[in-house]
Write a structure and sequence with these properties.
Layout: E1 4-10, E2 13-18, H1 19-40, H2 46-77, E3 82-88, E4 91-96, H3 103-134, H4 140-158, H5 166-179, H6 182-209, H7 213-242, H8 248-251, E5 259-260, H9 265-276, E6 280-285, E7 288-294, H10 295-299, H11 311-314, H12 319-322, H13 330-340, E8 344-349, E9 352-358, H14 359-371
Parallel strand pairs: 2-3, 5-6
Antiparallel strand pairs: 1-2, 3-4, 6-7, 8-9
The structure holds zinc ion.
Length: about 375
C-alpha cells in the first residue's frame, strides 16, 4: 500500500492519492449504490442509485481534500511549508515539512481541517433544506443530506484527542503551551492516541462478537491504524529533534573506494570485495558517479559468468535516486532510507564521490546523539 499517484496541484501543493483510496472509493460507492440509498429512498431507479452513489463518493473525496487543504492553507500562511497532501484509506494527511514554531500556530493548523468539515456540513445541510423543498427530483436531496452527515462525522472523528489526529494535535499544542517541551507533549499526546487506538480495537472485537461484524472490523482496522500512526509520529519527532543540525557530511564514511564500471565481476571480487571488506561500492566512470554495486547485486550473476560480466551490467544505475549530498539533513535521509528501503547511498559533491552513508551510520549517529542528550 505504499504506492502514491500524484494527480494535481492546489496552491502549489502536490496532491497524491494512495492506491488504498481506490479500494475505499469503490467500497463506499458500492455500499451507497447497493445499500444506503435504496434502503432509505426505495422508490428510485437503478440508474439514479448509481448516479447518486458515484456523485456522493466523489464529493466525499472532495470534502476530505478540502479538509486537508484547510490545514495546508493555514500552515502555509504561518510559514510552515507543505510537502504534499496524501489521500489514503482513512482520509488524508497533510505532510508539513517542519514542526510549527509555537503552540498557537500548531493549534490553528490543527483546528482548520475540522473547521472546514463543519462549514461543509452546514453548507450541505442548507443546500439539502432548500433542495428538499423546491426540487421535483427525489435524487438530489438524499445526496446532500448524506454529505452533510459525513462531513459532520469527518470533523468529529478528527477531533478525537489522540495524536496524530487533529484533536491529538490540539492536545499536544495545549500540553506544549503548559510545559514548553515539544518532545514531551508529543510523547503524551501519542500515548493518548495509542490508548484510543487500543479502545477502538477492543470495541471492534466486542462488536464483531455481538454480531455487528463489518462495523467491528472497521473499528479494529482504524484502531490499528491509530496505534501505528501514533507510534510513527512520535518516533519522527524524536528523530528530527535528536538529529537536528546533523548533516550527512558529519556522519558519512569519507574513506570511500570507488569501482570503475568497466571491470568484471571476477575483478571486483578479487580486487575490491576481498581486499576492502565493504559490502558495497559506488561505481564511477572518469570520476563521475554511475551507480552502486552491492554484494546482493553481484549474487545475481552465476559463478560461471563472473569473468565475462562487467560491473555496469548488474549495478544499480538510477543515480539520481541513490545519491545524497554532504549538506543534506541526516534526519531527512533517514526518512528516505525507511521509505525507499535503501540501505546505502553514495555521497556526491558536485561531480565527485566524496563518501558513502548507510542506514547503519544514521542509526548509529541517532544512538550516540540521544545518549549524549544532543
Ligand atoms: Zn485533519
Amino acid at each position: 500500500m505504499n504506492t502514491n499517484i500524484r494527480v494535481f496541484k492546489v496552491f502549489g501543493i502536490p496532491i497524491e492519492i494512495n492506491v488504498s483510496w481506490f479500494i475505499i472509493f469503490a467500497l463506499i460507492s458500492w455500499s451507497l449504490v447497493k445499500g444506503y440509498f435504496p434502503a432509505n429512498y426505495p422508490d428510485l431507479s437503478i440508474a439514479s442509485y448509481w448516479a447518486m452513489g458515484l456523485i456522493a463518493a466523489f464529493l466525499l473525496f472532495a470534502s476530505v481534500l478540502l479538509h486537508e487543504l484547510g490545514h495546508s492553507y493555514v500552515a502555509k500562511t504561518h510559514g510552515v511549508p507543505i510537502k504534499r497532501i496524501t489521500l489514503f484509506l482513512f482520509g488524508g494527511v497533510s505532510q508539513l515539512s517542519k514542526e510549527s514554531a509555537n503552540p498557537r500556530i500548531e493549534c490553528m493548523i490543527a483546528i482548520a481541517g475540522p473547521g472546514v468539515s463543519y462549514v461543509l456540513m452546514i453548507v450541505f445541510f442548507v443546500a439539502y433544506y432548500i433542495v428538499s423543498r423546491t426540487s421535483t427530483s427525489g435524487a438530489i436531496a438524499p445526496v446532500l443530506k448524506y454529505l452533510a452527515y459525513v462531513n459532520g462525522i469527518l470533523g468529529t472523528f478528527n477531533l478525537i484527542p489522540g495524536f496524530p489526529l487533529d484533536g491529538g494535535r490540539l492536545l499536544r499544542a495545549f500540553i506544549w503551551k503548559v510545559t514548553g517541551d515539544l518532545q514531551r507533549s508529543t510523547y503524551i499526546a501519542s500515548k493518548v492516541g495509542g490508548a484510543i487506538g487500543f479502545s477502538f480495537i477492543a470495541l471492534g472485537f466486542i462488536s464483531v462478537f455481538t454480531g455487528r461484524f463489518i462495523f467491528g472490523l472497521w473499528l479494529v482496522l482504524i484502531g490499528f491504524f491509530l496505534r501505528q500512526a501514533a507510534e510513527a509520529s512520535y518516533l519522527q519527532v524524536v528523530v528530527s529533534n535528536t538529529l537536528k543540525g546533523v548533516k550527512v557530511g558529519d556522519i558519512m564514511k569519507a574513506d570511500v573506494i570507488t569501482v570503475p564500471e568497466s571491470i568484471t565481476i571476477q575483478d571486483l571480487i578479487d580486487n575490491y570485495f576481498f581486499k576492502y571488506h565493504y559490502d558495497c561500492f559506488p561505481v564511477t566512470l572518469a570520476g563521475r558517479l554511475r551507480g552502486l554495486i552491492t554484494l546482493d547485486d553481484m549474487r545475481q550473476v552465476p559463478r560461471s559468468k563472473w569473468s565475462e560480466t562487467t560491473v555496469s551490467e548488474v549495478m544499480q544505475s538510477d543515480v539520481d535516486t541513490l545519491k545524497v549530498t554532504p549538506h543534506d539533513d541526516a534526519a531527512e535521509i533517514l526518512k528516505r532510507v525507511v521509505r525507499d528501503r535503501c540501505g546505502k547511498m553514495p555521497v556526491v559533491e558536485g561531480d565527485r564521490v566524496v563518501g558513502i552513508i548507510t542506514r547503519k551510520d544514521i542509526l548509529e549517529a541517532l544512538r550516540i546523539f540521544s545518549d549524549l542528550g544532543h
